[in-house]
Amino acid sequence: MENLYIPWLFLVHTLTLVAKCRAKVPAVIVFGDSSVDSGNNNFIPTIARSNFQPYGQDFPGGQPTGRFCNGRIPPDFISEGLGCKPIIPAYLDPTHNISDFATGVCFASAGTGYDNATSDVVQVIPLWKEVEYYKEYQKKLKAYLGVRNAKKLLSEALYLISIGTNDFLENYFTLPNRQSQFTVKQYEDFLIDLAADFLKKLYVLGARKISLAGLPPMGCLPLERTTNIMGQNSCVEERNNLALEFNGKLKGLVAKLNEELPGLDLMFSDVYYIFLQIIKRPSAFGLEEARVGCCGTGTFEMSFLCDQFNPFTCQDANKYVFWDAFHPSEKTNRIISEYALKTSLAKFL
Ligand SMILES: *[C@@H]1O[C@H](CO)[C@@H](O)[C@H](O)[C@H]1NC(C)=O
Ligand SMILES: *[C@@H]1O[C@H](CO)[C@@H](O)[C@H](O)[C@H]1NC(C)=O
């Protein structure tokens, strides 16, 4: 009887440590770029930051956190929607520790991409380094929960990945290197191979439930519209078509990996169409302005160009599809997250 009693006590103890989530998933673990970064770049030397006002003006407490938004971003809404915590902390934030990270953690870094050369552009965390941080996190989690419980948590957690836009917009179409090496289609395939390597690495490390977001309609980001002078600042159709083509290849990769890797539940989270609907008919979603962002003139400002001294910043970001010239507003993030929870993530509710 005695040796039955001890494991039971141990179980109760670990349950109280882990049971902060009412959901089918015990934690939300995030990789990617600014679309999902909750502030890791605050702790590395880079210009790709947003830890100053007016960023975060609609965040709880009105705090700039390093999220490229006026408020919360999709991992926050998705975690909350699943019954977990409403804020996913950045792994590099020293005010949080493993007891917080055990129910959700973010390794993402604004400005990064699948391609190492993309993260070099603004000196941010390359995707391989996000994986190194994840390995370090695993060690800490095992020390905190015990190996068995940590492994269980890591296999039952929901992994959210959102990355790729910067590889095209910040790297391929902006700098000469990759263009001299690859046609656009070859570059897409290069990125797909990198995505495959990354996903296989996560699988080997124990991840099983993974949501991979596709690209948004990149040609409708205000910054892209601004360059479309001949087209009266309408969406750049070539960029949107490229996003669709790349998403098609990601979908193919998702199907292939699900077949190859036993027990893997890899989901493609298609944000393209819902995002395009919001842009084409903002009023149907309670929004008013889709062509420019709220911050500054809304045509080019982001990061350090979007600051509290810019006199043009809008009064109510909740009327805007975009917060700055590159990133959705909190309201758009909420709509897209609710859509994901109703579609690709519905089984976790
Ligand atoms: C994490 O931080 C909290 C609050 O500062 C503290 O109470 C707790 O003991 C820490 N946990 C670990 C595992 O370090
Ligand atoms: C990216 O950089 C890491 C670290 O230097 C390296 O291990 C990896 O092979 C690189 N990836 C590619 C595709 O060059």
From TrEMBL:
It comes from the Eukaryota. It comes from Malus domestica. The keyword Signal applies. GO terms for molecular function: hydrolase activity, acting on ester bonds. InterPro entries: GDSL (IPR001087), GDSL_lipolytic_enzyme (IPR050592), SGNH_hydro_sf (IPR036514), SGNH_plant_lipase-like (IPR035669). Keywords: Signal. PANTHER family: GDSL ESTERASE/LIPASE EXL3, GDSL-LIKE LIPASE_ACYLHYDROLASE. The lineage of its organism: Eukaryota, Viridiplantae, Streptophyta, Embryophyta, Tracheophyta. Residues 1-23 form the signal peptide. Belongs to the 'GDSL' lipolytic enzyme family. This is GDSL esterase/lipase. It holds the Pfam family Lipase_GDSL.
